[in-house]
Write a structure and sequence with these properties.
Number of helices of chain B: 3
Largest sheet of chain A: 7 strands, mixed
Shape of chain B: rod-shaped
Number of strands of chain B: 0
Helix content of chain B: 55-70%
Oligomer: heterodimer
Structural class of chain B: mainly alpha
Strand content of chain B: under 5%
Radius of gyration of chain A: 36 Å
Largest sheet of chain B: none
Mean pLDDT of chain B: 77
Strand content of chain A: 15-25%
Distance between the termini of chain B: 95 Å
Chain lengths: 565, 132
């Protein structure tokens, strides 16, 4: 009887012991699995739970004009959004904040009454304005910092600057696009431990930071005041002539720096979303046109430089010139006489220029055109730059092609290219690559200057002779509208019918142009003006030349060039 | 054992010689404990100081960011105020008009007129470089 009663507890004890042992073994195995087998995985999960990684946005670099005036600035703005479900009175709230946001009250009330949990009220509001709304302490309104790109001068130099996408400040047009990689900088990273509130625990937790590197500042060659004058003068001319658009390029011939570049139609980069995308086009660089008589400079300069004519050489100018089946005439019917090379330039004689080209020959003309930079992009580094068109020599027919090309047909160029061509004359015969970027300034102040590129095209003697001939255009020829008090201006008029690519023929619309420089004795500026399809008037001398004079006067004052007489 | 004189051995009493006992060195333990506590407290205090400094640095960092933001806002404001469009509008609002003729005045004894852009630029470069 005694033995069985002693055996039962022992069995139970053994059973319990086995169970406990099994539990311990199980726990041990589980611990082994958790802490050894899957240790890395769980450690990773733990880190993910408590660690937070934030991308630190880099400040976008500022864009300055050549004198250090801000043309594009990034500021810390505030985006205001709402959770409509938390808005107690949509109408009352809308009435309160709509004026501060610059929104329509009814439309805002409708948005605040919508059945969503999120709606943007205003993106990238300036901090001061956002603070006024924040002070109202309206439940359901939220504020989050967001950088904003601002163009303080509004539409000034809009085509040069371009604009950025508001979501991520990535450049979409102009310099903002072309130099986006340099301007945007390098984002940083913050790895910290997450607090219960979701924020980063500072400083008790882990706090590793790789600071963002601010983008480079870009210093343009643009002069803000000259740019403004160019835009105003162009707008006045386009309005007066009822044209569909126009372009102005102002160059410093000694350096190739672009002092101003204006286009119409234009837009405000602060509000590009509401602008016509057609207005974004930088016509001075992207649009090509047949330069017409302004191209006569290339023909005559080439002939002088090649030694086939001299400025005083006389040519008998017939009333018309028939080459193959094509008849060439001068616009002015009074040119049926002998003219010197200088007078051919001054009075823009088509027939006279063709006679000079016949002395020069096709091959030489083609070579000089290429040397002057026609037919290839100028290298300004602007997105979408057109190369213009110079037909390969093999495609030149023996007679008509040379004649037409000599007077600026059968060749096309941008306004910038034509400014560069005249820059060769103004710069003693040396072509300089036009540039928009003066310097890049790094986050630590290191400066990278843009490098120059140049080549000699004609001799300095030829350039000097051409300057005097082109001064004659303004003093007695077709470009008298460009004359200004105190300075001697040289230049060349141009009026060409627009070629209709689709129809393969010339249309009724014209491009009126004038390219000039001043002062003739020591040129400091080259100005190219094109007016697209003017309805009132058609000649470059009437429409474009006065614009050049107006801009030249302001620009020379701005540059501190003393009057020469 | 040296026998004690009889006179010093009262009747009924027995001389008991102390056995050697282990004396607890309390002072050492107290010093150790106090030192440990002090070290621990110092550690906590230094950590608190460190954290306070970190918070102060964080505040300063925020202030720097705030000031930098303000700086750029002010630069933006200056750029807006200086923009040619605004200046022209303001001038026209005050009744100013552009001159119809410009008459150059020769200043005898002064070098060639206004400062060149390039000279201005030399002064501007260090300013631009010093930007945050």
């Amino acid at each position: 009887m005694g033995r069985p009663t002693r055996r039962a507890p022992r069995a139970r004890i053994v059973s319990v012991a086995v169970l406990i042992l099994a539990a311990w073994v199980g726990t041990g195995l589980r611990l082994f699995e958790v802490q050894v087998v899957h240790a890395d995985e769980y450690a990773e999960r733990g880190r993910d739970q408590r660690h937070v990684t934030e991308v630190l946005a880099a400040d976008r670099g500022t864009i300055f004009d050549r004198d250090g005036h801000e043309l594009a600035v990034t500021i810390d703005a505030v985006t205001v959004y709402a959770d409509p479900r938390l808005i107690a009175g949509p109408e009352a709230t809308a009435a309160l904040i709509a004026p501060l946001l610059g929104l329509d009250t009814t439309e805002l009330a409708a948005r605040l009454a919508s059945d969503t949990s999120f709606t943007y009220l205003s993106r990238q509001l300036e901090r001061e304005d956002a603070e006024r709304i924040e002070e109202l302490a309206i439940p359901g309104l939220f504020f989050t910092p967001e950088p904003a790109r601002i163009y303080p001068s509004g539409p000034l130099a809009a085509h040069i600057l371009g604009f950025v996408r508001s979501d991520d400040n990535e450049g979409l047009e102009g310099v903002e696009f072309a130099l986006n990689d340099l301007l945007r900088g390098t984002p940083g990273e913050l790895v910290g431990e997450r607090a219960a509130s979701g924020g980063v625990i500072i400083p008790l937790g882990q706090y590793d930071i790789v600071p963002a590197v601010r983008g480079r500042d870009v210093v343009l060659t643009i002069d803000r005041e000259i740019q403004y004058e160019a835009e105003v003068a162009l707008a006045r001319a386009v309005e007066a002539s009822d044209a569909i658009g126009g372009s102005v390029v102002v160059l410093d011939p000694r350096t190739g720096e672009i002092l101003a570049m204006a286009n119409l139609p234009t837009f405000d980069p602060n509000d590009f979303a509401n602008a016509d995308p057609e207005a974004f086009r930088n016509r001075a660089i992207v649009d090509i046109y047949e330069p017409g008589s302004t191209h006569k400079l290339v023909t005559v300069a080439a002939a002088l430089d090649a030694g086939v004519v001299r400025p005083a050489d006389m040519f008998d100018i017939p009333s018309e010139l028939v080459i193959d089946d094509k008849t060439y005439r001068d616009v002015s019917k009074t040119l049926n006489e002998s003219l010197s090379v200088s007078d051919i330039v001054a009075y823009s004689s088509n027939v006279g220029t063709i006679l000079i080209q016949q002395e020069l020959g096709n091959e030489a003309l083609h070579r000089y055109m290429v040397e002057f930079g026609l037919g290839s992009p100028s290298g300004v580094g602007f997105p979408g730059e057109a190369s213009g068109k110079v037909y390969p020599l093999e495609e030149w027919c023996p007679n008509v092609c040379g004649a037409s090309t000599a007077i600026g047909y059968r060749v096309s160029a941008t306004a910038l290219q034509m400014a560069s061509v005249f820059g060769v004359i103004a710069n003693d015969g040396t072509w300089l690559r036009p540039t928009l970027i003066k310097e890049l300034v790094g986050a630590n102040g290191e400066i990278t200057e843009s490098s120059a590129s140049e080549r000699r095209v004609i001799s300095s003697t030829t350039a000097a002779e051409m300057r005097l001939m082109l001064a004659g255009v303004v003093e007695k020829g077709t470009g008298t509208g460009a004359a200004i008090a105190g300075y001697r201006v040289g230049g060349k008029t141009g009026t060409t019918e627009k070629f209709l690519e689709d129809e393969g023929r010339y249309g009724d619309d014209v491009v009126a142009s004038f390219v000039g420089f001043a002062p003739v004795e020591d040129p400091r500026i080259v100005i190219a003006v094109t007016i697209d399809s003017p309805a009132n008037g058609e000649f470059g001398g009437d429409i474009a030349a006065p614009v050049v004079g107006e801009i030249a006067l302001s620009a020379l004052h701005q540059l501190g060039v003393p009057p020469s007489g | 054992m040296t026998a004690l004189p009889q006179i010093l051995r009262p009747k009924g009493l027995e001389l008991v010689v102390d056995r050697p006992v282990r004396r607890v060195r309390l002072r050492g333990w107290v010093v150790f404990t106090l030192t440990a506590v002090l070290a621990f407290m110092s550690l906590i205090y230094s950590r608190v100081l460190l954290d306070r400094s970190a918070f102060a640095l964080n505040d300063l960092d925020n202030q720097i960011n705030e000031t930098e933001s303000r700086y750029w806002e002010l630069r933006l404001e200056v750029a807006r105020l200086e923009s040619p469009q605004r200046v022209i509008r303001a001038a026209e609002g005050m009744g100013l008009v552009l001159p119809t003729a410009r008459i150059p005045v020769e200043a005898v004894g002064v070098d060639s007129g206004a400062a060149e852009v390039d000279e201005n630029w030399l002064e501007l470069k260090p300013l631009l470089s010093a930007q945050p």
